[in-house]
Design goal:
Elements (H helix, E strand, L loop, with lengths): L1 E6 L8 H11 L3 E8 L10 E5 L2 E6 L4 H14 L5 H14 L1 H16 L1 H22 L3 E5 L4 H9 L7 E4 L14 H10 L4 E4 L2 H11 L4 E2 L17 H4 L8 E5 L8 H7 L7 E5 L5 H10 L6 E4 L7 H5 L2 E6 L6 H4 L4 H8 L4 E4 L2 H10 L2 E4 L4 H13 L1 H14 L5 H13 L2
Length: 426
Amino acid sequence: MKRVGMFVWNHFTNDARVMREGTSLSQNGYDVELICIDDPNDPNIEQYEEINDHFRVYRMKRYPSLLLFMQRAYRFAFGKKWPLIPIALIWAYLVYLIPWIVLPLTLIAVLMLKTKVRVLWIRGALILRMMWKGHKGNYDIYHSNDLNTMPQGYVSAKWRFNKKPLIYDSHEVQTSRTGYDSPWYEKFEKFFINRMDSMMVENATRAKYNEDLYGFYPNVLHNYPTEEISIEKDTVDLHDILDLPKEEKILLYQGGIQMGRGLENIVEAFPQFKEGTLVFIGDGKIKDKLQKMVKEKNLEDKIKFIPKVPLKELPKYTRNGYLGFQVLNNVCFNHFSASSNKLFEYMMAEVPIVACDFPEIKKVVEENQIGVTIDPHIPDEIAKGVNYLLDNPDKREEFSKNCIPARKQYNWEKEQINLLEVYRQF
């Protein structure tokens, strides 16, 4: 049985793609160990977890022990009023006696605890721990999910006498995505692409982009959910949770509350919606901003927010939707080329979609007649799409029924064959 060492730069609590890949490999003759990051702030996360007999998760300690000790000492000295005066006197005395030792130590402590040096220390130490775990594992195949784990995969797979295969699984367009504006990302990616053995991207549009940029067409592995989630019919009653009338139509967005996803435009468009309650399920960097926007517009009775729910529970919430939103904005090629997971999650739940008219998403929605596509940058266009589904319940029902044959095509049970083909090269 081939052993796989897989890396991902998150806590592995809501990463559906990596969960599917690891599970498929473990059920098809591979023994998988996933190396990810621990979250000391979440008592429900364990550093070691067994998904099944051949899929295990190792979460690396997030913070260096020395940093934790320094933080505790700092809080003890300055976080309480009573020790502050004697400590200050002792410190002043030491500074007077041996300033060439104490002053540099003080400067180092401030740098480590109060500046970007702290972030670099945490990330650097974490990367080294992941490298050490990966190298020590001596796996037959190494698998790096996204660019931020390529150093770990490269060192683990290639810095040894008996070099091992390295797969680069790029979930995003690393050279054109929100927050990745530096030209160094392309240089960084190109360095590792020249040293890997196989690459996977999410769809044909991204594969062509990669070919134009680097001169080769990578393997395509779509981010489809498992069809089995459509079989389970349990539903969490959102109407009850949100104290809504049973006949109220829920207009649903699920996923990260992040920039560039058109969420502000949905809120701007909402006053034009002829009926319904808008529900956001998820968390993210702009959630506070979005909630403030809702409050300023006096829409708190009609726009509701629900925190992120566990991955396995999410379909139970999705089934409440009269329609679902996928209205990414064209702020980078990563968004423009996306065929994101939530599009297919709505499909699995038979929820018609109001979607952006970007190539991969538009192709799925229009060819399968499962919703409407609009210009996501214009609130009036979003409202037009929503009102079309509200005004035409028969058409909405037709779109919902069309999801059933569509999900027979866009599912992980079929797509995993492409993953296994990549692995059979080795």
